[in-house]
Amino acid sequence: MLVISKPLSTVMISPLLSYPLALLKLMEQETNVAPLGMARRVGTATSTFDVPAHNLLLALLEHAPSPENIIAKEVLVELGGCGNETVVLLAEMVIVGTCDMTEDDWAGLVHEEMQKPGNNFEGLTKLASHYLSHLLIACMREFPPRSSFTDILPLEVRNPGGPKTPQDTIHPTPDRKRIEEIEDLIKQAAFLRDGDYCLITSASFIPPDMVVARCAHIIPFSLSAKTQTHAAIEGFAGLVLSAQFVSENINHPRNALNLQNDAHDLMAKYMAWGIEAKYEGNEWKYYYRIVRPDRRIFFATLKDGDAIVFGSGPGGTHIPPPDPRMCNLRLAVSRVAYASGASEIFDKFVDDEDEDMMQVPVYFGGPFVSDDVLMRKLEVAMF
């Protein structure tokens, strides 16, 4: 199956998707900065971790890996729950395929009706909050370096209030030794496949002029056991990628590559770049894509759009390259985070952590730290 690797503005858009896209683009032109309210982390009554809901929904639809994603229908369903009879009818017409209006005319009429009093768009706000919490926040994870396992355990934070988010982990936390063994195996497999150098900076991992190699999960390690994140992945990816496949391949060379430190952090912490996979000439090819011009890899030898060559190591013909669907999913999520403004919020947390060396290290998705503790830590740091 061909994986769509460009924003949906550059590919054919399905009818179900084109109508909510037109509406959200119209909302973007409003003077009201948050016509659908603010999306926030699920489980908090108040939060400093806020993103305008319409911006997030628009970014999700524009950068989805497939035009046949579920989010478009979810937007229409929640729109139809606003209580306005005209909007309910218009949303239903698109869902069942009987709408004969142009996208712009439909969006204009819906938008006009949305300005009337008595409408309730809480469902759309909650939908945006779901994807913010279980897709974007979930992908801002970093597998902790070995030296940090013992540091993570005594984490203490001030509780900023609000109800706790129930954990939805479906697998028990693996022990520390097992995690280290898995990381070493994946790292060695990536060495055999790609050689002893960083594919983005060309820096050597072997003496004398060596840099430290860090194994990067393309899809973060913690996503393998989160059921709500599984649902968010399938809603976003549509027919392109199943959550089961992600879970089964999370700790596999097809979800990993070795990088030098800054290249690793700019992908894992800042979502500043990604890997685009395209099927060309009867084979998959991989390209370096800059997502955030404000966060570039200082020593990168690749420019935006340059090919990333996997398989040049001694075992390159035996160890599979990264899975194209997982590469494109991570790239799409990074683009959503940047387009919606969520990246700037994460920057605040990450930069504060880097500057304050007296704080206990916190790693998104660390197997010994719950999502609830992590997000409360984030909110305290940003308050």
Q: How many domains make up the coordinates?
A: 2
State which percent range the strand residues make up.
5-15%
Strand order of the largest sheet: 1-2
Q: In percent, how helical is the residue content? A: 40-55%
Radius of gyration: 21 Å
Structural class: mainly alpha
Report what the structure shows.
This protein has 383 residues and is mainly alpha-helical. The chain has 2 domains: 9-135, no CATH class; 143-154 and 174-334, no CATH class. Helix content is 43%, strand content 8%. It is built from 14 helices and 6 strands. The strands form 3 sheets. A two-stranded antiparallel sheet has the order 1-2. Strands 3-4 form a two-stranded antiparallel sheet. A hairpin with a 2-residue loop joins strand 5 (273-280) and strand 6. The N and C termini lie far apart (45 Å). 47% of the residues are buried. Residues 198-266 form the HNH nuclease domain. It comes from Tricholomella constricta. This is HNH nuclease domain-containing protein.
Descriptive terms for the model:
two-stranded antiparallel sheet; 383 residues; mainly alpha; two-stranded antiparallel ribbon
In short:
Residues 198-266 form the HNH nuclease domain. By secondary structure, this protein is mainly α. The protein is built from 14 helices and six strands.
Strand and helix layout:
Blueprint lengths: L14 H14 L9 E3 L9 E3 H10 L8 H9 L5 H12 L6 H12 L7 H18 L9 H4 L23 H19 L19 E4 L9 H11 L5 H6 L7 E4 L1 H8 L4 E8 L2 E8 L33 H17 L1 H14 L15 H12 L1
Antiparallel strand pairs: 1-2, 3-4, 5-6
Helix pairs in contact: 1-2, 1-3, 1-5, 2-6, 2-12, 3-4, 3-6, 6-9, 13-14
